[in-house]
Amino acid sequence: MIKKNIKEIQKLKSQKQIKLNKRNQLDEEINLINLHLKDLNNLKNQYEKLEKILIIFLMV
Predict the structure, then answer these.
(1) How far is the C-alpha of 55 from the C-alpha of 21, rounded, in Å?
(2) DSSP 5-57
(3) Which is nearest to 55 in space by CA: 40, 43, 47?
(4) Distance of alpha carbon 44 from its chain centroid, rounded?
(5) In total, how many domains does the chain have?
(6) 21-45: per-residue pLDDT in tens?
């Protein structure tokens, strides 16, 4: 009975570690995506500002 419980504990600990590793990997991927999104949003904002300036310039 004790050996069975020990085996189950080891199995669950192993599964837990695998899940933690996967979660860490996903967190890293999310961080990379967020960085890319931030860069793209900054670029979009710069474009929109430039576009507004150009419209004002052409209207004058």
Answers:
(1) 51
(2) HHHHHHHHHHHHHHHHHHHHHHHHHHHHHHHHHHHHHHHHHHHHHHHHHHHHH
(3) 47
(4) 20
(5) 1
(6) 999 999 999 999 999 999 999 999 9
Residues in the chain: 60
Domain around 4: 1-60
Tokens coding 15: 């599964």
- Confirm whether pTM is higher than 0.90: no
Query: Exposure of 39 by Cβ count < 10 A (0-12 exposed, 13-18 middle, 19+ buried)?
Result: exposed
pLDDT at 60: 79
